[in-house]
Amino acid sequence: MSQDLSPPKEMNGAESVVRSLHGAGVEVCFANPGTSEMQFVDALDRTGLMRCVLGLFEGVVTGAADGYARMAGKPAVTLLHLAPGLANGGANMHNARKGRSPMVNLVGDHAVRHRGYDAPLTADVEGAARPFSDWVRTASSAEGFAADAMDALAAAQSYPNKVATLIAPADLGWDPGGVVAPPPMAATPVPPVPEDVRKAAEMLGPETVLLVSGSVLADPQAVARLHGIAAQTGARVLAPTSNRRFDRGAGRAGIAKVPYPINLALETLAPFTRAVLIETVPPVAFFAYPGRPSLLLPEGCEVLNLAGTDGDGPAAVAALATELGATPHVPEATLPPVPQPGPIRHETIAAAIAHALPETAIVVDESITGGRDVWGATQGAAPHSWISLTGGAIGDGIPLALGAAVACPERPVLTLQADGSAMYTIQGLWSQAREGANVTTLIFANRTYEILKTELFAVGANPGRSALDMLDLDRPNIDFTALAKGMGVPAVRVECVAELQRALSAAMAEPGPMLIEALM
Amino acid sequence: MSQDLSPPKEMNGAESVVRSLHGAGVEVCFANPGTSEMQFVDALDRTGLMRCVLGLFEGVVTGAADGYARMAGKPAVTLLHLAPGLANGGANMHNARKGRSPMVNLVGDHAVRHRGYDAPLTADVEGAARPFSDWVRTASSAEGFAADAMDALAAAQSYPNKVATLIAPADLGWDPGGVVAPPPMAATPVPPVPEDVRKAAEMLGPETVLLVSGSVLADPQAVARLHGIAAQTGARVLAPTSNRRFDRGAGRAGIAKVPYPINLALETLAPFTRAVLIETVPPVAFFAYPGRPSLLLPEGCEVLNLAGTDGDGPAAVAALATELGATPHVPEATLPPVPQPGPIRHETIAAAIAHALPETAIVVDESITGGRDVWGATQGAAPHSWISLTGGAIGDGIPLALGAAVACPERPVLTLQADGSAMYTIQGLWSQAREGANVTTLIFANRTYEILKTELFAVGANPGRSALDMLDLDRPNIDFTALAKGMGVPAVRVECVAELQRALSAAMAEPGPMLIEALM
User: Fold this and answer.
1) What is the mean pLDDT of residues A326-344?
2) What are the structural domain ranges in chain B?
3) Pairing mode, if any, of strands B246-248 and B384-388?
4) Is a pLDDT exceeding 60 seen at residue A384?
5) CA torsion sign, B305 to B366 to B442 to B493?
6) What's the rounded Cα separation, in Å, for the pair A286 and A476?
7) Which pLDDT score, from 0 to 100, does residue A389 have?
């Protein structure tokens, strides 16, 4: 499509916003527009300045914007419709926010003069935005609209990245007087490396855990330095359960994660009397449980925050390595044995994935319980990026994969998708088909909210039929191949390892979307 | 399942809430629970006091609770999970709220002691609830938890009905000390009939519109009285575009609605210099448009509010009829001619539905543009209840139908479902299959957000390929029969009137769910 880069003498507010966002480097708009966003649809159409990706549900839109940002390293813009449309996108705004992934949401509201009349769609848009945004503003004039959008973009790109939501009364979009605004200044400089480097170095030893997340994990050199530090001091390096992005695989050093299940998490961290944190906070249980602590580090554990979540983790790691004279180290990682033919189990699906993963793949992980062995098995797989659920709001995998594929069309995407979670944003498969996204969705079909059964036992219940009915998905069984085909995505069901291997190889070799339902 | 009606000596907070809600007449729980609601799942299971209906997405849960309440005349309770889960249910809470349909939401939050740690799912639950609730409270002790739930129920059942959201930190559910609370007092008495009856009677004439909604429309006798009043005075009776419930069909008087499209709406109301309102507010455009007013009644129109949305509409109608000496009147309504064989068009699908509708059917209307002729055509159809989208937040039809079928298992449900809107809560088909709900979903497959094309023209655009791409759903086409079968609902696609008639007859004769995709 031809781009119209020369702003006309007169333009409406919507066009000034589109032109300003484009001028500041925003290239993609994920949208589920309604009436109050029609002037944006019109401006995007007339200018041809952005790639527009339609989602059939707002959770697809915000999740895709998150996946895009994690892989492109810059935000997309979303178009959402009033308070209910925004709420529909809220869960994946939450995930982006917890992952510190940048996002700019443009939410249409009623025209200013229409607000007082309590029209059917009237509700508190700012109120709906605030729990899931770091920055919220309602634009107030066509003239200032683009400048507001640049403030939203600046907020999104400030360090650490944020979710910024700009609410746009419809008349500001169609009113004349729009003024293109200059791109925001570069992101706030990150704070200098802290002065606690020597203290951190002195704390390291076999009873010390080095907990790292954030930008460190997307920097293989920083991770190799951490392994050098660990080799020299005997400290253990761990990442939190949830992380924005991890670049790993053969030739790169891996890091184990704090497990999700509360007892395993406590057990993993029990040996440590000291903890040094880099771009993360003291690890916390996902949920509270009767008789279990909320904080996962042992009581009395000495904690040093070497670099905060707003700090420069890789610089802190480099300074620590220099202080210790440690050299980067990449531990040998091997692939698991090729899985034997037979039923699909946690270990065999993990091994099959590890062997099938092509170079430069992007793995999107919302496998919850079903994929528990995949992380370990893929450390020796071909180099890849790993992005996963960060805020615990399930329904993120299919949208994240869509956004990642839009950001990196040359890289194959493999989504490890739990079946229960898949159903929250299943509509994203249609957008994958429409965009020809090179995504393979692997459904871990255990036909249950398996994780909730564990949780039910964890609160001390002895579940009967009615409780299990609330957690089982097998009445009726969901046929994911039918759902995929219904939305234009080719699909196959596999019931044994050999079928799984064949399907994975075929999917990785073919461009475009594909779904594999693996019965476990 | 056996019910355990005798409360134990000691119980936890969750059990006290379940027992109290049941004691106050709440019989159904629509749920999409997570970890923080496990003690409710356990209490529901152990006591066997409620029917539990699982939704795979929270919008299904809240929409079903709305449909249940509209047909049962009392609220169900929902179980939702933290701020993101609540947000997922927000759009259909909004629809219920705008329709003044009662709902009690129980939203699990982190345990009180876990709140300060910013666990991944931590967010402002009260903030997320407020834009979509009339009443919000966070419970603060196991002892007071059931009393809080009774306050929520009282709020939901106050007049007019409300959406009440009670947030429940997880530890209050599992802590001992729960105390069963007595049912709330009966709903606040509705205000007496206003004293403006004589004035209203004097205002009625050929230039007067009588706008009525709320409980009047579910009361065929009140509607017949309105027709008597109209016949005697020459006034015109109209209902707003969106209404909670309308009991109509052969032998009952009908009422035309103010049309949705702004120009048609203005045209319909242009003749009137006086308006008398009963259980409704002055009609407002769904959206503002450049050059069009927000209020739909002509400027200078004299407006009398005979009974507010918190008033007793049927009593006001009765008083007005007495004042005028008008007798109830049911205008003759005829069925449209049996449609001729041929392609499926607006008129032919409307006629086919009118002839197929069985006695006591419940029609759920989210047909948007595709079903525009069905309202008129079905006035002479077998007596039925009509429930429709009230808050403009699309994605309500499939869930409303689920809830209506749970409330009235002996009544067949027919959902008139636009294709674009269907995709927001398509997961509800699975719950329909699981519950054996007697619902026929008729998809109006025009493969476009047709209404948005109209809206795009209404803001003055001349759309090109990229704009139409954001509004068309035909790349790829969605195969709704595959989606339905994938979730256990039998389905058929029909492409002509004869096929449609056969499919409708078959679906109406069979129990259980069915989906018909009608290509238009």
Assistant:
1) 95
2) 13-174, 197-324, 346-519
3) antiparallel
4) yes
5) positive
6) 30
7) 96
Could you give the CA distance from residue A482 to residue A488 in angstroms, rounded to a whole number?
10
Cβ–Cβ below 8 Å for B476 and A461: no
The DSSP letter of residue B184 is P
Of the candidates A46, A87, A455, the beta carbon closest to that of B38 is on A455
Cα–Cα distance list, B482 to A317, A484, A513, B167, B445 (Å): 52, 9, 18, 38, 14
Determine the residue of chain B that is closest to A483 in CA distance. Answer: B483
Q: Which CATH number fits domain B346-519: 1.25.40.80, 3.40.50.970, 3.40.50.300, 3.30.457.10?
A: 3.40.50.970
Q: Is the peptide bond before A184 cis (omega within 30 degrees of 0)?
A: no
pLDDT confidence bin for A465, thresholds 50/70/90: confident
Reading the block at residue A217, the tokens are: 């994990």
Backbone angles phi, psi at B326, to 5 degrees: -90, 140
Tell me the two tokens of residue B263: 């120009």
- Which among A113, A465, A470 has the least Cβ separation from residue B41? A470
Query: Which tokens belong to A193?
Result: 């490396």
- Burial class of residue B341, CB neighbours in 10 A (0-12, 13-18, 19+): exposed
ipTM above 0.90, yes or no: yes
3-state secondary structure at position A358: coil
Which of B143, B62, B157, B63 lies closest to B106, judged by CA?
B62
Tokens 């004035």 correspond to: B199
Terminal C-alpha separation, chain B: 45
Integer Cα distance of B13 and B44 in angstroms:
12
Distance, in Å, from the CA atom of A474 to the CA atom of B79, rounded to the nearest integer, reads 21
What CATH number should be reported for the domain whose range is B13-174? Answer: 3.40.50.970
pLDDT value, residue B495? 97
Half-sphere exposure of A311 (CA within 13 A, CB side): 23
pLDDT of residue A456: 84
8 Å CB contact between B218 and B246: yes
Tell me the residues of chain A between 35 and 94 that have a Cβ less than 8 Å away from chain B.
35-36, 38-39, 41-42, 44-46, 48, 52, 54, 56-57, 59, 82-85, 87-88, 90-91, 94
Q: Kindly state the percentage of chain A with pLDDT values over 90.
A: 88
Tokens of A62: 């915000």
- Cα–Cα distance for residue pair B246/B276, rounded to 1 Å: 20
For B197-324, the fitting CATH number among 3.40.50.2300, 3.40.630.10, 3.60.140.10, 3.40.50.1220 is 3.40.50.1220
Judge whether A256 is closer than 8 Å to chain B, CB to CB.
no
Distance between CA atoms of residues B414 and B417, nearest Å: 9
| Structure-token pair, residue A44 | 């995007």
CA dist B369 and B387 (Å) reads 16
Within a 13 Å sphere around the CA of A431, how many CA atoms are in the beta-carbon half? Answer: 32
Residue type (1 letter), B29: C
Q: What is the pLDDT of residue A188?
A: 63
Q: Round the average pLDDT of chain A to a whole number and report it.
A: 95
Q: What is the mean pLDDT of residues A90-105?
A: 98
Contacts of B351 (CB under 8 A, 6+ apart): B335, B336, B337, B338, B339, B377
Q: Which parts of chain B have pLDDT scores under 50? A: none
A197-324 has the same fold as A13-174 = yes
Q: What is the mean pLDDT of chain B?
A: 95
Give the number of residues written for chain A.
520
Q: What is the pLDDT of residue B1?
A: 53
